[in-house]
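Weekly modeling sync, notes
Attendees: S.R. (lead), two postdocs, one rotation student

Agenda item 3: backlog of single-chain predictions. S.R. asked that every request posted to the team notebook include the full sequence so nobody has to chase files. The rotation student volunteered to paste the first one in as an example of the format we agreed on. Action items at the bottom.

Example entry:
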Amino acid sequence: MTLSLKSRFTGIIAASAVALFAAHAASAQAIAQGGDLRAALTGEPDVLDPATSSIYTGAQVYEGIFSKLIDIDADGNFVGDLATSWTQNDATTWTFKLVDNATFHNGEKFTSADVKYTFDRILDPATASSYAGLYSQIDSIDTPDDTTVIFHLKSPFGPFLTNLATNGEIVNKTAIESGDPARQPVGTGPFEFVDWVQGDHITVKRNPTYFKAGLPHLDTVTFRFLPVDQSRIDGLAAGELDWVDAIPLQQVPTLQSDERFTYVSSPVAGIPDFIAMNTKVAPFDNPLVRQAIALAVNRSEIRDFAYLGTGELGLTEMPTGSIWYDDAGLFGSERDVEAAKALMAEAGYPDGLTVEYLGLPQYPELLKTGQVLREQLKDIGINLEIKPVDVSVWFDDYVNGNYQITSAYQERTIDPDNFYSLVIRSGGPINTTFYANPEVDALIDKAAASVDMPERMALYQQIRGIVSKDAPIVFAHFETLHYLMNKNVLGSAITPVLSLHMEDVGFAQ
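Predicted structure, as returned to the notebook:
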């Protein structure tokens, strides 16, 4: 789920001092060429097709296999990837000049035709891409020559560049139509796919024809799937791993100062976590019940118990460090049990009710959020029964509406449109609460069509006010990210789009 902006992100998201220090320290040390990095992720990808993958662990792997037109660096700047320059010709026209030395892993030369094919495919309903909504404003794409691509938009679209940098991996038509894009991805990226052993690992190897000189440093990266938090730390300590994602939160205070490891984090590049209610089924088809839950939530308790004091309270889709952050006019920003009880009585449940919470043991913070919520909702007469399920079962039930209430997240929310067009707009590809409000839809569309920052900020303030009161979701927490690696691993940093950028990682000489 990757997006892009203009030549500079104007500081919407900046890297933390810790991440910057780690990056600067790496640049001051020489990175050796070669080596086999053993990395551990929190789970297994669903597929490695960037148009259809819906799980973040998928993106963590496939972003090293594919390239995008543009990216966003750790300082929040737009930087070229397959594009050497980009120009806004007018309010609805963007021209990109492309590199002429990129080759797909199957040997085919990259051209502007691949860019057109990529976005035509995402927008094709037959692809069923979760990211189609990010590019619905594309009217047509011209390719006047092999190194020029021109996007014609239906209307001005503020998040266009951001979206390209976040979810714009360029694919190859031959590989897609004659191969298996889900299991054998082919891109122009720094690493080539080698193998996928179900339930164990995915291996990628250095692309010898990568178009950026001197990269990647590593010969191979093996991504192991270790959903048990402690197993990743134990593997690192035992020398069986070199780099791990998602440090157990209870160990952050100890591990961030452990001299055996390098710790990298960011206070603003992270993930908004929220409580999702299925508005199609009782009792959450009644907005009064949803409002009661919004008023019953104590975010401080969620942060302290589920996230062990890390991260932020999470009132909106953005962290407080973002210039988009605005908590004015939000419904339910403070807990009010008496008001929540009154709403329950007004909704026809003066004696309370029982609901089922779909829990995810593989994501302990989300499961613990449910446990905290269960205790909080007792205060307003709601008995929350937690049903723990495997992540694949959870995902199927969540997207198909076979649930009442659960906790979820939306990674890489750089521009507010990334959240509202996907998760809140009626018919949005990740609108799994099935919320629909024509007024909100119109505001989302108007905000996306604007290129005036103050106007967009004011529109998102309105959107947040309405959505928080309708309460299809209740923001519960903003989750910060943490990487841990052995001291001889250099170059790892957390960027706004949350790409691992393994091409920059290597071992110290």
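Discussion: group reviewed the output briefly. Residues 1-28 have pLDDT under 50 and may be disordered.
Action items: rotation student to repeat for the remaining queue; S.R. to check formatting next week.
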